[in-house]
Amino acid sequence: MQLWHILVLAGVQGIVNAVDVPARQALVSAIVERDNLLNAVALNSSIFSNASSVAPVIAGFLVATVGEGWCFAINGVTYAAVVGGLFLMRLEEHRKSQGKQSAVSRIREGFHFVHDTAPIRRILVVLTALSFLGAPFTVLMPIFAARVLHAGPRGLGLLMSANGVGSLIGSLLLASKRGLSGLGRWIVFGSAGFGAALILFSLSRSFALSLLILAPAGFCLFYVLTASNTLIQAMSPDPLRGRAIGILSMLILGAAPFGALIAGLLAQRFGAPLTVALGGLACIVGALVCSSNLPALTVQGRQLILANFVPAGIYK
Predict the structure, then answer these.
(1) How big is the chain by its Cα radius of gyration, in Å?
(2) Which tens digits make up the pLDDT trace of 67-100?
(3) What distance separates the 2 farthest-apart alpha carbons in the chain?
């Protein structure tokens, strides 16, 4: 296995995610009742959280015993169940005519919508900052496990699992929540909390303390991502919802690789702890920027939600 093999595989995975993620997210709002949107999005995300809290521990032991290659092989086989489930779904009733608009015109319409809708635009700016500057801390986790905390492959699995446990707690909390009230404020608080957790993690030299810090970091990051996803779906009319989620996914998935590249370069020059601390500080600054004019944005967001979900009373 050579470096260019990894780069090609990562590029193919990025292309697959670009198609899969927005389609899957938009599908949630098409197959559940509107007043259950928040719970459905949270439960859908909790599947990832459950895997994130358990799988890294298993992977850590597998890497230490049989090597990385078998981990990729096992992961690939598990997708057979996913593909089989997709083939069993019958969704013809959700297919709508796109009219005579070209694909370019529909894409342009989606970009105009998210740009002209101030609450959605503000959410996307915050998420881009988190994905570009904060979330790449995960790619530096092997450095923390090996050189900072001296924990090895199994310790790396535990560190990633601690982050997943926090995400799982966030998913359960969101799944039990009724209505959308207060999610905008949680995006601000969650962004600031995530940044603070990253700074504390960068300062820790204790493996046990690092595990405790990563749980709230995972909680805050998951809460921000899921709350943002839910609000954007709720504020978008049916014909534009898929495109809005597609732009959201593009910004998150598109910013993260470039953020990881920059994080790697900074870590090589200044060290992983300082790089993660700077990312945490940037997330706190982004939260402060997002909080400006928040009451007016909340009112506008509420009006958009009520326009799309009046029968469900989802804002109660």
Answers:
(1) 20
(2) 778 888 888 888 888 888 888 877 655 455 555 6
(3) 61
Residue 54 identity: V
DSSP designation for 92: G
> Taking each helix axis from N to C terminus, what angle separates 294-309 and 183-203, rounded to the nearest 10 degrees?
130
Q: Report the alpha-carbon angle 284-286-291, nearest 5.
A: 95
Q: Evaluate the CA torsion angle 28, 98, 96, 240 in order and state its sign.
A: positive
For the segment 138-161, what is each residue's pLDDT rounded down to a tens digit?
A: 889 999 998 999 888 788 888 888
Distance CA 155, CA 149 (A): 9
Contact 202, 276 (CB under 8 A): yes
**Chain centroid, CA 304 distance in Å:** 23
- Buried-exposed string 257-271: b where 16+ CB fall within 10 A, e elsewhere: bebbeebbebbeeeb
| Beta-strand runs (E) in the chain | none
* Domains assigned to the chain: 3-88+103-308 (1.20.1250.20)
197 Cβ contact partners less than 8 Å away, ≥ 6 residues apart: 213, 214, 216, 217, 220, 280
Task: Find how far residue 76's CA is from the centre of its chain.
Answer: 22
Cα–Cα distance for residue pair 221/228, rounded to 1 Å: 11
What does pTM read for this prediction?
A: 0.76
